Amino acid sequence: MKKKKGVAALAERARVSGHSGKPVKSGKPAKAGKPGQPGQSSGMPERDVFSDYNMIFVVMFLLVIGLVALYSTSSYEAALDYNGDSFYYLKRQLIFSVMGLVAMLLISRIPVTFYRPIATYIYAFSVLLVLLIVPFGYESNGAKRWINLGFFNIQPAEVSKIAVILMTAAIIYDFGAKGLDNIKAMVRVLLPAAFQCVLIYLITSNLSSAIIIFAIAFFMYFVACKSVKPFVVLTGVIAALAGVFLYLTVSGKLEGFRSDRILAWLNPEAYSSTTSFQTLQALYAIGSGGLFGKGLGQSVQKLGYLPEAQNDMIFSIICEEMGIFGAVGIILLFLFLIWRLVVIASNCKNLYSAIIVVGVTAHIAVQVVLNIAVVTNTIPNTGVSLPFISYGGSAIVLLLTELGVVLSVARYQADEDE
Question: Which residues make Cβ contacts (< 8 Å) with residue 267, sequence separation at least 6?
């Protein structure tokens, strides 16, 4: 008999082992009796209520570490820019974190099946938000990517991420695992994400968010699909386009700030006072931290040398103050979180729920990898924040909202359609 692959196999194992990942011990069935009495059947299926406390713990731990690292990184700049208020960034991030946690707890109470019929409307709303940047966009540091809501600025690209996860999961569910093994299905699944990517890039010039959104949809389809042929075709097309872009940039036939970033990545010393200044300062911070770092609050690069250190480059300050030991510890926490998400996805009882968790996992994993790669100059600077740690209100609220959906998947597994 041919061995099952992909999410179908994960769902099959979930039906055998239950949500905890451990074999279910056989026991005596509950006695039939009057409804409502303990240990007796009411004639209705019992809800398999389950919360992954390991995941909740590591998320809380990352949030606390993020707040400590953010204050250490931003206190000097905040005191200079906000009339001596060194707690400015910390207070705002704390408020956003609490908002996100409340949203996570509320969302975790909503069955995940609620989102499938309205996924198209959520996606349409996210597209509308991106379009609203044109007339109502708020500009910061030369980039027009936010909408000012008065009490805080929302970045529509962050809403697009969760909208694409829900929309892509709904499309994959409609196809079914057996209907995805062809180019036509691949195009249909990836089209909403591709449209969002193009829209975000054209309106906001935010290439990093566009890359993350497409990567999320790509990994969701990769996990659900059993055939490798569509991925060979798509990977070949992407590699060819990247090769052409790199050739045109190096040969001097293509100009612009994207090309400048490529050239600065290949030869950072030649652009030390311009394009690669931030990257070089980040590398200085990492190199000076050594094995155990200079100590919390003792960073030198955050004292005006590393621009916007509390945002995309916060990991370099962590390396400087806590050393390689601290940096590896944070990476291990992210790996533990990703592992817990994989456990939840593996034990889902239907394709839709499993693919949603895969999308959230891909979002966190891709963003962590890209951020660390940028900070270490492994890839060109693309401006990707570090989840739970970098400063950003809408990013942390919506990321915790995604995790609320994951908790909902774990909580309501017994009520899912097979």
Answer: none
Domains of the chain, residue spans: 50-415
Q: What is the pLDDT of residues 240-273, one digit of tens each?
A: 888 887 777 777 666 677 778 888 888 888 888 8
Dihedral sign, Cα of residue 301, residue 306, residue 308, residue 313: negative
pTM for the model stands at 0.85
- 17 Cβ contact partners less than 8 Å away, ≥ 6 residues apart: 23, 24, 347
Among candidate residues 77, 54, 57, the one with its CA nearest the CA of residue 65? 57
> Residue 335 corresponds to which tokens in the numbers above?
């790996």
pLDDT for 32-78, tens place per residue? Answer: 444 334 344 333 334 444 567 889 999 999 999 999 999 999 999 99
CB within 8 Å of 227: residues ≥ 6 apart: 180, 181, 182
Distance in Å from the first CA to the final CA of the chain: 22
Q: Which helix (H) or strand (E) holds 41?
A: strand 40-41
Enclosing H/E stretch for 93: helix 88-107
